[in-house]
Amino acid sequence: MPATFEEIEERVEVKAASTRIEVIPAVFESQEEKVEVKAASIRLEPVAARYEQIEEEVEIRPSEVKLEEVPAEYETVTEQIQVAPATTKWVRRKGDKNCLSANPEDCMVWCLVEVPAEYETVTKTVLKTPPTTKETVIPAEYKTVKKTVMVEGPTTKEIEVPAEYVTIKKTIMVKPPETRVIELPAEYKTIKRRLMTAPAQTKVVEVPSEFKTVTNRRLVTPGGYSDWREVLCQNKIDEVKIQEIQTALRRKGYDPGPSDNIFGTKTKTALIQFQKDNGLPVGQLDFGTLKALGVSY
After folding, report:
1. Main-chain phi, psi angles of 30, to 5 degrees
2. Could you count the other beta carbons within 10 Å of the beta carbon of residue 250?
3. In sequence order, which ranges of 129-264 are alpha helices (DSSP H)?
């Protein structure tokens, strides 16, 4: 429902109250004053330095460094070089020893096995000590000479010069300028404005639900299927990996039992339930299950 309004008269301010400032000028008079025309100062008189002769050793030839070459040294060593790189091959073997299937064939998996690289031993001559240089120091040569040195530096003597003054007349302010504040009243006028007497409202109208009949298809008996899945090999199921799986199951809301790093009955039960709830193959640690748990493989 729309709001209701009415017009009222109201007195509003059209010009705010203010103040006017009037300036009262300052008052001045003339006075005599003694002022300094030349400041006191200090005159400096120089005092000459004093010298004497001394004996001193001076360098006539600087020290030198003579470089001698030292040849390099070599040695014979043996090392292994790779003649065939490491490879991998697929081998069918029994997978998880904790496999839950009654058929042994269901527990057989293909594992990727590493084939080590092949190496060959070779002999070669290598640098043992690189060529270097040996330094021989030749000392400097000196001789005694006489020279004049300053034993007392030049100085200055201070002589005070008194200040000079003169009497002058100047105008000074005996009363500073002032300001007077005059208040000006505010100005008002009457205006008409529209006020809301009743706010807008909302009315709730119930609209009945609408229904229709639909046909849904429901699974009565699940069908069986077989499929090849990549699973985690037995040599990679260690205590660290089991702890990661138990932590991931607990994070997903399943109870794998205590975090004991053992793939026990509670951990297996929780894993199977997780696989069933998420439509995953049941009974193996396949890559799809590990990915769904967020565990690396």
Report:
1. -95, 140
2. 14
3. 239-251
Cβ 262 vs Cβ 256: under 8 Å: no
From 192, 185, 190, 186, select the one nearest 12 (Cα to Cα). 190
Yes or no: say if 13 and 129 are a contact pair by the CB < 8 Å rule: no
What is the C-alpha to C-alpha distance for residues 251 and 191, in angstroms, rounded to an integer?
Answer: 70
How far is Cα 281 from Cα 99, in angstroms, rounded to an integer? 13
Is pLDDT of 129 > 60? Answer: yes
Measured from the Cβ of residue 232, the count of other Cβ atoms closer than 10 Å reads 21
In this prediction the pTM is 0.28
Q: Please state, in angstroms and rounded to a whole number, the distance separating the CA atoms of residues 55 and 152.
A: 18
* C-alpha–C-alpha distance, residues 245 and 259, integer Å: 10
Burial degree of 251 (CB within 10 A; 0-12, 13-18, 19+): exposed
Which residue in this structure is represented by tokens 């600087």?
Answer: 62
Tell me the mean pLDDT in the region 271-291.
92
Is residue 108 within 8 A of residue 229, CB to CB? The reply is no
pLDDT per position as a tens digit, 180-202: 778 788 887 887 777 667 776 76
In the predicted structure, residue 250 carries a pLDDT above the cut 90? yes
